[in-house]
Amino acid sequence: MKTIATHLIRKLPTIFVCLFALLISSTGPMEASERSFLDSVKESDEPFDNRSVSQVQPVVEKTVLAKEVDQTGSFRVLARKQEIERYKCSSCHTDKKVLVNYAQELTHANVVINHGREGSELSCIDCHHPEDRDFLEDKKGRKIDFDHSYQLCGQCHFRQKRDWLGGAHGKRVSYWAGERVVYNCASCHDPHSPKFEKRFPATYSVPLK
Amino acid sequence: MSLQTPDETTRHPEDLLEKPCSRRSFLKGVSIAAAAGSAVLATGCVPSADAASSEELKLRWQEFFKKNYRLMSPEEKVETVKRIERLAKLQEDLNVQIGTEPPIEKVLYGYAFNITRCEGFMECVSACVKENNLDRKTNTQYIRIFEMEPGKLDPSTGDGQYYHEVPVENKFYMGTQCFHCENAPCTKACPTKATWREPDGIVVVDYNWCIGCRYCQAACPYYGRRFNWGKPEVPKEEVTQKQHYLGNRLRPKGKMEKCTFCIQRTRKGRLPACVEACPTGSRVFGNLLDPNSEIRYVLKHKKVFRMREELGTEPKFWYFID
Question: Which of B139, B280, B286 has its CB closest to that of A176?
């Protein structure tokens, strides 16, 4: 009996070392290093009440309720009509005859269309309604309001529209919280020439080191 | 600790401190008196009732003995902010409003940058400089935009000092700034605990506790931090007056500073200045914990990557392509 006891006592340090190693390998550090904060981000599926941020003010610009839904339900877009200089179009587009002297002023000679493939650019009535000038018209012949031009643009640019609805294209106006208000297509893009023009940067950088 | 009765301390000649009762505040009072005395000696004038200067001195000393922001009670935060506002008025005749808005609950800020859309106009940089009262003399900028060769994804290979018409064909543009790492190396390097991660994920600096050792700058693998070699110079009419204690308030000389996701704006629900200024919509900002937020849409539906992800710093700043 005595020999067994002394044998065990002699082995004690080894047993402790083994136990310690087991403890370290089985728990704690391994799990912690494998779990990233991103996992908890992806797991958080409780919608945040964006209206709970009390200091959010209504957007200054004129907005309209969008005719589409995003992941949150309804959202608003910046209105467009008040930005169009000569709207309402029907104030000129009447049956009245126009004197040739005013033709230069009254026609849209300043509009250069640079939209569509080079050589086969779009024409006016590809987007504008041929009869009712106060509206746009999509390929299915539906009248589209100038404030809701995303419905028209999205026919071809459906990928951009999908991302715009989700939030990866375009951006929100002023606030990340509060009711979702986003820029309209034509708030940023000139519909007649949608690509941004080349220009000099707003500033420059000096070397860091 | 209180060795003096309130009576004893209120008999202080300048009556500079209204309610001191501890040894610490007593010493503070003595040091103010000493400083005031030495000022009189240096100028050799008869001590006049120069209210402004003695008030300034008092405020500066109270500021010198204040706690770390994280240890302050809400009342102490209000007091220090009042002092700083008053000092800005006395020293530079500026009417600033400094906020101490706490983090919003259930919010973790995240940021995404679209490298397909950015065209290098650098509107974000100039908006940031203006919003955050950055030093105009040395042209301090939190954001850098790099003009990149196709196929390269490391900004150190790009041109960060371009100045020509943009966008250039067959180049793309990539912005960097502080990435607000979840596992931020800079906060661990700070010997005075003057920089830390806030509960909403923003990495901030208490400029009054920063000693300017620049360990954090050395620890940051992204060149996200900037140092003030001199006092930042901002034209008086261009100072952004709405400020935050941890954000764009006017920094003293010799302090470290960095992007704070415009803490003075974002904690009020506004977008950071760079996002608001971006003409191409390349910048997406939002709440990572909200499954309906734009940033979560980007993370879910776009090809995203983070810079030097292998370092394990867990930045909350993603790059994505359309």
Answer: B286
Model ipTM over 0.85: no
Chain A residues with beta carbon closer than 8 angstroms to that of B119 = 196
Tokens of residue B264, six digits: 């003075």
Task: Tell me the one-letter amino acid at B109.
Answer: Y
Angle between helices B74-92 and B51-64 (to 10 degrees): 140
User: Measuring CA to CA, which residue among B160, B177, B262, B161 is closest to residue B224?
Assistant: B177
A207: chain B residues, CB-CB within 8 Å: 160-161
- Contact at CB, A174 and B293, closer than 8 angstroms: no
Q: What is the CA radius of gyration of chain A?
A: 32
Q: Which two tokens stand for residue B38?
A: 């030495």
Residue A28's alpha-carbon distances to A16, A31, B245, B313, in angstroms, are 19, 6, 37, 19
Residues B115, B320: contact at Cβ < 8 Å? yes
A166 in reach of chain B (CB within 8 A): yes
The pLDDT tens digits for B49-106 are 455 578 999 999 999 999 999 999 999 999 999 999 999 999 999 999 999 999 999 9
pLDDT band for position B3 (cuts 50, 70, 90): very low
Min Cα–Cα distance to chain A from B32, Å: 40
Please tell me the predicted confidence (pLDDT) of residue B48: 45
Q: Which residues of A touch B270 (CB under 8 A)?
A: 56, 174-176
The owner of tokens 């103010």 is: B32
Give the pTM.
0.82
Give the number of other Cβ atoms within 10 Å of residue B58's Cβ. Answer: 19
Would you state the pLDDT for residue B311? 94
Q: CB of A183 within 8 A of CB of A62?
A: no
Determine whether domain B109-321 maps to CATH 3.40.470.10.
no
Q: Which residue has the tokens 């640019």?
A: A157
Query: Does residue A3 have a pLDDT over 90?
Result: no
Confidence (pLDDT) at B26: 52
Question: Can you give the residue ranges of every domain in chain B?
Answer: 6-99, 109-321
Which of A142, A146, A187 has its CA nearest to residue A164? Answer: A187
